[in-house]
Amino acid sequence: MAEKSCAACDCIIDGIPIEVTIGGKTVEVCCDECAQKLKEADTSAPALRAGVIGLVVLTFAAFIGASGHAKAEGSMIQHSVETPSGRISYLEQGKGPVALFVHGVLLNAYLWRHQLADLSDVRRCIAVDLLAHGDTEIDPDQDVSVTANAKMLKEFLDALRIDQVDLVGNDSGAGIAQIFAALHPERVRSLSLTDGDTHDNWPPEAFKPFLTMAASGGLSETLNAMIADKNVYRSPQALGPAYEHPDKVTDEIIENYLQPHLRNEQRLRDLERFLAAFDHKHTLAIEDRLKTLKAPTLIVWGSDDVYFDVKWSQWLQETIPGARPRVELKGARIFFPEERWQEFDRELRNHWQTVERQ
After folding, report:
1. Three-state SS across 3-28?
2. Is the Cα dihedral 201, 206, 211, 216 positive or negative?
3. What are the φ/ψ torsions at residue 218 (nearest 5 degrees)?
4. What domains are there in the chain, each with its CATH number?
5. N or C: which end of the chain has fewer CB within 10 A?
6. pTM for the predicted model, two decimal places
7. CB atoms near residue 317 (< 10 Å)
8. Is the distance from CB of 331 to CB of 244 less than 8 angstroms?
9. pLDDT grade for 41, boundaries at 50, 70 and 90
10. Alpha-carbon separation of residue 182 from 100, 168, 202, 324 (angstroms)
11. What is the C-alpha radius of gyration for the chain, rounded to an integer number of angstroms?
């Protein structure tokens, strides 16, 4: 069956599409948020009411403005590129210097959708799907450790002929970003780290029961339970503690994150291998290099993170010579780039502007 694309954001629709009638024509979108934006646009945009449906994707950035985003450049588009590590899937939006966003375990590039829409007026924003995540395709024997993912980022940038990036990481992606920056400092124009793997503090105690479950063969049953009943995902026993407001995490968001892992047996095995490879030896190995990293570094941390205490943001600030004064978001948890994207995006804009003035 051919893949369907959302008429609003142009992403691939993994779940059941939502039909929206615009100008007498029916189109399909991926989620309630996109449906609402198109309905608002139909009310206010005469060109769309006249039936110019082809303009929906090109002008979707203008619709997002009604919900607080800055005007975006173009639309979010999904691409993939061949690398020695696999065929890497990524989302892209905007023009200008490249900002590379790296997500963490279980999630995918969709985590960064708000950043891509909001910051695409000043950056060519690219969000990758890590090895063993999202739509990235790899061989069954491909190394999927965090160090292998850092290696993949270099291959990815080489394939796209990108010399330098403003690197942004969250959760496992923060650890991968540290490894990449330490090994390839010449490729990093600036670094932005949020709650995530640091030094010898991971895997965090709060996540170890999940790792134990996966190691004992329960991953398929657990993920399918989360898909069947999204409240399982939102529960305190699952991913609820990762959110400040788990009740506001929509079914569509959960589907976007989890469905790719269940498409076939290999994808599930790849995720199991990613989890089994959790070992802080990878971040300990680059500690000495972090101590010489001069890239301007922004550290933004949630104060209520049950996985990564704020003391680790302090460790990063003390260790990285290029680090600037930390920013703590009161009450925020690990996935605040999704929940409190407006605050985080302001910090990123200010950070990048400061770097440009140097």
Report:
1. CCECCCCCCECCCCCEEEEECCEEEE
2. positive
3. -95, 10
4. 18-67 (no CATH), 77-357 (3.40.50.1820)
5. N
6. 0.82
7. 16
8. yes
9. low
10. 16, 14, 18, 17
11. 20
Do 335 and 174 form a contact (C-beta atoms < 8 A)? no
Strands 98-102 and 86-93 come out as: unpaired
Residue 145 has pLDDT above 80, yes or no: yes
What per-residue string of b and e applies to 36-62 under the rule 16 or more CB within 10 Å gives b? bbbeebbeebeebeeebbeebbebbbb
Over range 6-29, report the average pLDDT: 66
**Structure confidence by residue, pLDDT tens digits, 284-327:** 999 999 999 999 999 999 999 999 999 999 999 999 999 999 99
In terms of Cα–Cα distance, which of 131, 132, 122 is closest to 154?
A: 131
- As a whole-number percent, the residues of the chain with pLDDT over 90 amount to 79
Asked whether the predicted pLDDT for residue 56 surpasses 60, the reply is no
Q: Parallel, antiparallel, or unpaired for β 25-29 and 18-22?
A: antiparallel
